[in-house]
Amino acid sequence: MENTPHNTLFRAIAQILRPMVRILLRNGISCGSLEELVRKAYVDEAFEQARRNKTKVSISSVSAETGLSRKEVKRLTKLDESETEQTEQKFNRAIRVISGWLNDDNFSYEEGNPKALSLDSSENSFADLVKKYSGDIPTKAMLKLLEASNSVEVKDGLVHLVRNAYVPGRDPEEIIRILGKDTHELISSVDHNLTSDETERWFQRKVSNTQIRSDALPAFKEYSRNRSQALLEELDAWLSQHEADKDDKESHYVSLGVYYYEQENDEGSQS
User: Fold this and answer.
1) Which alpha helices (DSSP H) does the chain contain, by range?
2) How many CB atoms lie within 10 A of CB 241?
3) CA-CA distance, 149 to 132, in Å (whole number)?
4) Whole-model pTM?
5) pLDDT by residue (tens digit) across 174-198?
6) 158 bridge partner residues
7) Residue 265 CB coordination number (10 Å)
8) Pick among 3.30.360, 1.10.10, 1.20.120, 3.30.420: CATH of 84-161
């Protein structure tokens, strides 16, 4: 295949699709269902780009841009895709609760170690923490969520934070939805860097090595996990110190993620 910008883009998309299709096949999702999602994404993004660029948009203009018929564009605009919002809110609020527990002086010691919190509604209790950082999610619901992820333990009426991060429990649906959010943010960051001047690009780096011994992998997994967790906790503490007031209309959402990947060298063309 000739090296043109379009061909390079198609090869990149093929690399993205392979692991995605792997997940779809494992969950019984047909190619036709994926096609419907792709069509919907084309239509939604065409409308969104017009909104960002402050240009006029219509069913006809979106039809011309996407190659879909006007009837198809009209049908797709009526489909609802908001069903993932509730899980994303639970995920984000669980992260906020743990972050507040680690960084708020009312719930942690000076060195940043989390206090054991009472379950009742007294001052600086677990209920107080949840009320302050999770919005309208009930205390019992948040406790159940954190217990399912092995983030907390309850002993003698006190809630102990045993993991300084929220990792979803065994709910496959929740894990897949979070996968969608994280992947969306990564690809959106790449897109930003492709369309921005060098001074405006976001941080995007990785380290890799193709000649690591198999017997060294467990040690690197442990080393990278510990260092990454420490870095994320440090960054989370910094973000907590620079949060805007709740009624501040100029606030922004930011995130920074770390991932680990490995494969055998002879599988390089199959990933």
Assistant:
1) 5-26, 31-53, 59-66, 70-77, 85-103, 126-133, 139-148, 172-194, 217-241
2) 8
3) 21
4) 0.66
5) 778 788 889 999 999 999 999 999 9
6) 118, 155
7) 8
8) 1.10.10
